[in-house]
Structure formats: structure tokens, C-alpha cells
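Dataset card, provenance and construction

Sequences and ligand SMILES were collected as paired inputs. For each pair, a complete structure of the chain with the small molecule in place was predicted and serialized as C-alpha cells. The example below shows a pair involving zinc ion. Curators did not alter the output after generation; any descriptive sentences attached to a record were derived from the structure itself.
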Amino acid sequence: MFDSTHPFAFFDYFRVPYQVVPGEVPAGCGRLRVTGGDATFTWVVAGAVAPPVAQRGRYRLDGLPFFGSVVPDRVAKTWLHGTGWRPVHPITDHSGRQVASIWLDSDGSVFLPFDPGELMHRFWSEAHQDAGRSAQVRRALVRLYYAIRPVLPRPLQLALRRRFTTVQQKTTFPNWPVEPALHDLYDRMFDLVARFAGVPVPWLDLWPDGHDWALVLTHDVETADGCATLDLLRDIEREFGERSSWNFVPLRYHTDDRVLDGLRAEGCEIGVHGLLHDGRDLASLRMLNRRLPEMRRYAKRWGAVGFRSPATQRNWDWMPLLGFDYDTSYHDTAPYEPRPGGSCSYYPYFIQDTVELPITLPQDHTLFAILQHPDEKVWIDKAATVRARRGMVLVLTHPDYATDPRVAEGYRRLLKTVHGDTSAWRALPREVSAWWRERARSGVERVDDKWRVTGPAAGSGRVAFAQPPVS
Ligand SMILES: [Zn+2]
């Protein structure tokens, strides 16, 4: 459908058909054409243009926040030849000053002063995180708290974390409980591309078999108590015929093989939740390497292909070293977690060769014990939001906290609201991960005048279309 001078990460992610063909392009830019067409869609390739030509920072595109490198209007004007160019979407810097624009030419050509692939990567890897002084102080406080936590009595731990929430509320990005920035960016990109193409642009739909969204239920078992009270949550799932994934900590308590066998027999999945649950697995590369063989040994013994890091400790470069098929330690938005942040993504994405499955509902402990919400309204509303964006509602609850009726009853009401919804793909995390890999190895091709899915997802994948905006 398109020819491009460079790989285009946005198309790769959504599996929009294009081929890379050499062509003339301004230095530091990549350029797309509709195959056989004249108009051009030019973007700035991340890393190819250095300061002062491109400035890295926090910006807003029509109000939509992002972090990345942007080529300012004063530079863009010297690049854009012809008289038909006009700035159509303003980009403002942190002080609200307009510094750059998306430009349109009278022939339909487009100039993007940034690389959408870089922006996506910065969201996913949380490289948008506030680098300002107040953010550094916040992070130092959180680190201090976790350093002294082991010697604090539990009630004092809780009281301190509740206190922290007032500090953490000052975080302006990502917003909680919903941060739509990344998905707004996807919509904006599809609008631009479809307007440029002038025809519906095909891509490989997100979920298999025509499902609109995905529902993924996961649990972390924190202690031996949690091990003994699995049924508080599992019974609710049985009521609704749901399956789920259970992450156990290898060396913190004894995990009875019969418990695991029982879960597997019901179609559930077993995952690894760190090694000791002391928040140290990813403290340094040395520590990780020291602990890894034992974690891998348990993964093998349990048949586990998934990892969830205790206290969602994470490191973009190290997660692939764990050697799991997927990781599920990132949130879409989590200002109140021990390790705050958020990838803003309701969809899976890759960290090198590891599939990342972001947690997209607030954790039970955070919602009820820390923020002291009286009920599950945030869960229900957020699930509706993610569903409306065709995302993955990935829930994390703990049997350890399920003696709190707000957790158990809230979970029951959440499952009740989605019960019987046939538009949902009810999947285990390992199934989502396997699908995401399959999808990444598949594409959309025109065969006999019809767009079809080709590759391993040919049987279950569907072609979706981005429609040109009406105007
Ligand atoms: Zn945990």
C-alpha cells in the first residue's frame, strides 16, 4: 500500500502494509508515499537529527502530552519547499509556547516534525518520566521508604504509604486512573495517514477471531496466607466460568505442587513473582544475575512462561534478560505504586523479544488499602474506558488482601459487569503473549483485490481499516 524510505515503527506496530524502497529524502528524514502516488508523508527519524536542529523535551500536540525530539517551525520552514505548506496542528513546549507544527501541503503532503516511533518507545519505556527537581525528590523519598520498610511495623508502613499519596498526587503525568495520551496519539496518527492516503488504510486488528477487546485476570500470591486463601478469589471466578493466572514467589513460602496442579487442572496458568519478594531482584545487574538461575529453575519446574516483578520493580533493558516469554510488571498508569510511572498502553508491546502485558486496572491494595476507596467504581469505570479503546483489561488482585470485602465483592461485581460479553477475548496472559508474537510475524496483503491477513495469524487475524476523516 505504501512505499517508505525507512522502517516506520507506527506501521510495524499496527501491521500496516508497506515496503521499504530507496528514495530521495531530506537528510535526517524518512518519507512515505502511497505506492504510485506523488504526495509525500515525511517524518523526522529519531536520532538522525541532533540538537540544536531537534530539541528533546516535553511537548503537547493539540493539547496531547508527549515526550520526544521535535524539529521547530523555524527549522522546518527552511526544509519545506513550495508555497502550499501551512502549519495545521500546533505543538507547544512545557511553557505553553508554540514551537513546532505538523505541516500540510496543498497537494496533501504531510510533514511531521517528530518520529512517532520514538514517541511510542518513550511511552512504553516510561522515558517520559518527569526529570524535574520535584520528581527527583519524590523518587528519593520513595527509595528511602523502601529501604527502611523491612524494619517498619505493617500499620506504620501503610500509614506512610498513605501519606506518600499526597506527594505522589502532585505527579501531573501520567494522569490517574486514566491517561489517554498514547492512544490519542495512535488515533491522531491513523487520521493523518488515512487522510494522506485518501482511502481506508488496512492494518492487522488487535485481537484474534474478531474480538473487540481482551480480558486478562492475574493474581500475585504474596505470602503463605495468600496461598491458603486462593479460593477467596478463585471461587468468584468459578462462579463466572473465568480462568486466571497465578504468580507465586519461589523462596518466600512453600508452594505446594498439589495447589499448582489443581489450578492447572482448571485451565489456570502459573507464573513467577520474583524470587524472595524483597524488592531486590532488579536492584542491580549483579543481583539479577545472581538470582536468575534459581528463578529460571522454578520457571521450568512450574512450567511458567510469565514473570511479574514484586512491587512492579522494572528496568527496560533488563526485563528481556529474565528469559520469560512475557513480562507483566508495567502499568499503564501508576503514580501510587512503590515504583511509580506508567507506559500509558492498553495494548501489549515488545521489550526487545519479550512481550510486555501492562496492568491496566489499579491494584487492589493500592485502590482500597492505600487510597481507601469505598468500592470498585474506579475498576468498573476504567474497564469500560479500556474496553471502549479496544484495549486489554488486565486485572491484578491478591488473595492475601481478599479478606477485605471491598476486594472480594469488588472483584465479583467487576466480573459480573463483563459476564456474557462475547466481544471480549478471555485469555490467559501466556495466550495473549503467544498471539502478540504471531501477530507481529503476520501482515496484511492485497490478494485478488481483497485485503487479507497473511502469515501465522492468517486463520485468526482480521483486517481492520482506518477511515479517512470526513471533511
Ligand atoms: Zn507481590
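Derived descriptions for this record:
DSSP finds 14 helices and 22 strands in the chain.
The two ends are 23 Å apart (CA to CA).
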